[in-house]
Amino acid sequence: MKNMKKLSATLVSLAVFSVLGTSSAQAVTLDNPFSGGNSLFSLLRAIIDGIVLPIGGVLAVLAFVYSGFLYVTAQGNETKLKTAHKALLYTSIGTAVLLGSWVIAKVIENTINQLRP
Question: Which residues of 38-60 are buried (b: 16+ CB within 10 A; e: fewer)?
């Protein structure tokens, strides 16, 4: 019986606070990353610049931090050092691919813009 009272009190307070939180919440507006153009080219540019690069950049930084963590925690153990070295190598390769694809996309974009009449 005592547990039932605690459970009901918890549920009632949870309901009250959830209603208060939603009633005083402000409207949040999100920018549409796909706005600003109606062609396939502008859609692809919006996807690359607005979604792929920011997410890829954050993941690259986290992967570099993780690789550094592996180096620090290896403490001279050869197998752990090899694992950390592989993680750092693959992170560097992935970051180079990400940045290289962005550079290639920008070169193609500039070339197409120069060829337009």
Answer: eeeeeeebbebebeebeebeeeb
Please compute the mean of the pLDDT values over residues 86-90 and round it to a whole number: 96
User: For the chain, which residues make up each domain, given as ranges?
Assistant: 32-115
DSSP secondary structure, 49-115, as one string: IIIIHHHHHHHHHHHHHHHHHHHHHHTT-HHHHHHHHHHHHHHHHHHHHHHHHHHHHHHHHHHHHHH
pTM > 0.70: yes or no: no
Q: How far is CA 98 from CA 31, 49, 58, 73, 104, in A?
A: 24, 12, 12, 28, 10
CB 71: neighbour CB atoms within 10 A? Answer: 16
Query: Each residue of 5-41: pLDDT tens digit?
Result: 777 778 767 766 676 655 555 677 777 656 656 677 7
Contacts of 17 (CB under 8 A, 6+ apart): none
